[in-house]
Amino acid sequence: SYVVREATSVHAESIAAYWSNLSFDDAFKLGIDLDKIPPTNEIIDFIEQQISLPPNKRNTYILIWEVDGIAIGHCNITPIVVGEYANIHSHIWDKSNIAKGMGEKLMKMSLPIFFDKYKLEKIFGVFYALNPSPERLCVKLGFSFVDEFPTIPGEWSFYQNVKKYVLFKNDFKT
């Protein structure tokens, strides 16, 4: 069974462990510079701080993905512009669970939560252009291609080309 639930402080260590234990190759596929990832305790502190805030004050909102009662990954939106848009990110923690259709099912369950909780009109997928996995997922979910451009997309990222996709709330089909 598939379950999507709001992250709590109980999940902070698992999320932080995912980032702290990335191999160089896995980080590179995500467009992440390992040297920019903060220490595990700082990641945990950030997650716990975000979780403690009222929803409209958060910079990130995290959902936990569970399969058969076991947390297998997370999905989050950040930054969030309430009533307008957010960027979505998803990560399956154990590589043995990748490419099994879990991400698509769990993302379909996550998107309406994000749209509704933050009254979003659209959600963007922005990802490293050389990583084909998020692009395949975006297409399956009905996102439309917007642009490809060079940038440093996040605090932990290296300079790279990113692809940007968008899904409008009115176009989302469960």
Describe the protein's architecture and organization:
With 174 residues, this protein is of the alpha+beta class. The protein has helices at 12-20, 24-30, 40-52, 102-117, 132-140, and strands at 2-6, 61-67, 70-81, 85-92, 122-128, 144-151, 160-168. Strands 1-2-3-4-5-7-6 form a 7-stranded mixed beta sheet, covered by helices on one side. A hairpin with an 8-residue loop joins strand 6 and strand 7 (160-168). The protein is globular and about 40 Å long. The two termini are 17 Å apart.
Main beta sheet, described? Answer: 7 strands, mixed
Shape: globular
Helix/strand-derived category reads alpha+beta
Q: Enumerate the spans where pLDDT stays under 50 for 5 or more consecutive residues.
A: none
Provide the helix percentage: 25-40%
Q: Reading side by side through the largest sheet, how are the strands ordered?
A: 1-2-3-4-5-7-6
